[in-house]
């Protein structure tokens, strides 16, 4: 039954005018018990929305897309408010187990692990940065035996989804035109961008397109953005096809279990809860999990697919013994540093973001609110710890320059995202007058080739109980040392004449807990990182893709669960080794390719309906 949730509809009304004809309200469908569909997709996130679009290109296939959350809205569209969204019910609110070497001084001594619970999934919560990674990231997947996943084989899928709106890149062979997903630069040009570019040049780096031929260099962030507003996968891939008759979207619906015949090891549907009612729906062809690295792994295990011993501990009858939940990888970053400049017009902090002028500019698709998650510059570099990488041109450290900093977070929004306590904030920054706190910006190092690996386990056989997530950040000591090297590179950037022209300096109050270590020594930075390092929200790998026979694998290169029928996974969880990049674009690529694999396996030609005019 098709219905309209009044709250969803109401929040949708606030979207700015004029309306793009491709955008519009997705109505809600409640399936009846035992209703049959050709394919059931679990999760309407970065991957799920792409899959729903591509599979409904076959008119005779009836598709059900099931999502635990509701609609995105006016506020989630505002790029600079990305951090705020993680404090709302659009976030699943997962936490890690207490970590030994990260998040030690954060609220509850745990790392917050935000994940989207909304149509568009984490592409609604994310910082909009569009980054694909290094060609060797994908060539390495292929070398592991995952045929079909080399860079030259996945590049067409990156391009297929893309509608590049950056004029200087429109003719690049690395970018696509006419796809569903708009990629643009933020209309707002941060004054810091000019300094960052000059600093990079002073240090010998080129200003370049990091999604092009070479990754290492300094750049302006490319963003999943449409006219200065967030372009989630829901907006990009679902809304334009909202009138397709063979697509049904069930919102506010939580899948509790995959239905599996234990005798034939074939999946035949799912059980979901909606408005307190349990409904079973049947898949005539396949169930496709796109519930993300946490959701897909958890669903498999509560349904009997996972490590046998662990499942028995949880009193779940094992159906197939596979290493689900292992191989959890993520990018970790260090975000407490604030740099002070002598010119208030350079930075974007709370006062500017909250000003009526910024709001008016935003309604016209301009102004500082359009900065993607506040990011104004990216740099990709190699630390000495990248020497053991066989690829000589792959970066292991990324620098993300924010137009503001944690010190300027007077309203407490960034603090909430990071899990930083008010007490910590005041100990660090209260010595700075309010006015000076607004004159600060940040450059954060990100470890993009981590060696440390975590694990996700169940707490119970009930999907509603959040799983136990051990990230194991910095378990390998080289990871911590590489990140300290990132701090040193940032110091070089700040030391360039470009930044020194504005007397840029580090706010040098020692991090709480590190006061007894010599300030600015490597040991000091190791301590500071362990106190406040946080996730960049790129968890991947819990349902690792490998060829058959590899005991570490959960899905095949065709994304089918090893040893089963009728069950596929297509989301961030299948990634065997995390790319040196933000993960939204790689996940969208995975879903594009997965759709073609599914069509091939069911004997369908490759049908696509990209827009020809990408304006
Ligand atoms: C705060 C944040 C910032 C980020 N910043 C960036 C960035 O700037 N650039 C970038 O490239 N990447 C970024 N990422 C990462 C990127 O967004 C994710 O890697 C990507 O969105 C993952 O896609 P996915 O399809 O695997 O999972 P998701 O997009 O998380 O989708 C999973 C969907 O499944 C639903 N679901 C889960 N379980 C169930 C269930 N049982 N029943 C029904 N529905 C269910 C969820 O509600 C969700 O909608 C960020 C992520 C976050 C959270």
TrEMBL record:
The active site is at 538 (proton donor), 582 (proton acceptor). FAD binds at residues 118, 255. Transmembrane segments: none annotated. Gene3D superfamilies: FAD/NAD(P)-binding domain, Glucose Oxidase, domain 3. Its cofactor is FAD. Belongs to the GMC oxidoreductase family. This is Putative fatty alcohol oxidase. It comes from Chilo suppressalis.
């Amino acid at each position: 039954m098709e219905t309209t949730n009044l709250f969803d509809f109401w929040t949708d009304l606030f979207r700015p005018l004029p309306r793009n004809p491709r955008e519009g309200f997705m109505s809600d469908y409640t399936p009846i018990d035992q209703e049959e569909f050709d394919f059931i997709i679990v999760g309407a996130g970065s991957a799920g929305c792409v899959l729903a679009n591509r599979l409904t290109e076959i008119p005779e296939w009836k598709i059900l897309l099931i999502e635990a959350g509701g609609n995105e809205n006016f506020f989630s569209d505002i790029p600079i408010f990305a951090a705020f969204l993680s404090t709302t019910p659009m976030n699943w609110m997962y936490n890690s187990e207490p970590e030994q070497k990260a998040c030690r001084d954060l609220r509850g001594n745990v790392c917050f692990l935000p994940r989207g619970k909304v149509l568009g999934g984490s592409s609604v919560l994310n910082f909009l940065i569009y980054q694909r990674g290094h060609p060797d990231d994908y060539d390495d997947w292929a070398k592991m035996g995952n045929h079909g996943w080399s860079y030259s084989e996945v590049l067409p899928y990156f391009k297929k989804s893309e509608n590049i709106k950056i004029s200087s890149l429109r003719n690049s062979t690395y970018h696509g035109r006419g796809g569903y997903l708009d990629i643009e630069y933020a209309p707002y040009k941060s004054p810091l961008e000019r300094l960052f570019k000059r600093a990079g040049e002073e240090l010998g780096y080129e200003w370049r397109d990091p999604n092009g031929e070479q990754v290492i260099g300094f750049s302006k962030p490319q963003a999943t953005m449409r006219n200065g507003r967030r372009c989630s996968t829901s907006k990009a891939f679902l809304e334009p096809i909202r009138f397709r008759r063979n697509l049904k979207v069930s919102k506010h619906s939580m899948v509790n279990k995959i239905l599996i015949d234990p005798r034939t090891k074939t999946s035949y549907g799912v059980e979901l809860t909606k408005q307190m009612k349990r409904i079973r729906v049947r898949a005539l062809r396949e169930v496709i999990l796109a519930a993300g690295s946490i959701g897909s792994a958890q669903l498999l295990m509560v349904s009997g697919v996972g490590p046998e011993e662990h499942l028995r501990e949880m009193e779940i009858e094992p159906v197939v013994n596979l290493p689900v939940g292992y191989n959890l990888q993520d990018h970790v970053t260090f975000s407490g540093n604030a740099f002070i400049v002598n010119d208030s017009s350079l930075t974007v902090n709370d006062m500017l973001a909250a000003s009526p002028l910024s709001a008016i500019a935003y309604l016209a698709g301009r102004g500082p609110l359009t900065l993607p998650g506040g990011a104004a510059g990216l740099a990709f570099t190699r630390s000495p710890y990248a020497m053991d990488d066989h690829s000589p041109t792959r970066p292991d450290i990324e620098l993300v320059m924010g137009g503001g900093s944690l010190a300027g977070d007077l309203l407490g929004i960034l603090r909430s995202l990071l899990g930083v306590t008010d007490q910590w904030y005041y100990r660090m920054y209260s010595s700075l007058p309010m006015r000076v706190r607004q004159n600060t910006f940040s450059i954060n190092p990100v470890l993009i080739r981590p060696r440390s690996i975590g694990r996700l386990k169940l707490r119970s056989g009930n999907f509603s109980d959040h799983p136990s997530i051990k990230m194991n950040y910095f378990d390998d000591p080289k990871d911590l040392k590489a990140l300290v090297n990132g701090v040193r590179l940032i110091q070089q950037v700040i030391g360039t004449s470009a930044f020194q022209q504005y007397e840029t300096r580090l706010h040098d109050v020692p991090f709480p807990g590190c006061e007894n270590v010599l300030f600015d020594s490597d040991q000091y930075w190791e301590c500071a990182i362990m106190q406040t390092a946080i996730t960049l929200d790129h968890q991947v790998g819990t349902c690792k893709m490998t060829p058959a026979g590899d005991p570490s694998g959960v899905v095949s290169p065709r994304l089918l669960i090893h040893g089963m029928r009728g069950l596929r996974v297509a989301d961030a969880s299948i990634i065997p080794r995390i790319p040196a990049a933000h993960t939204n674009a790689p996940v969208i690529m995975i879903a594009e390719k997965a759709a073609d694999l599914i069509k091939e396996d069911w004997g369908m030609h490759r049908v696509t309906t990209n827009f020809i005019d990408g304006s």
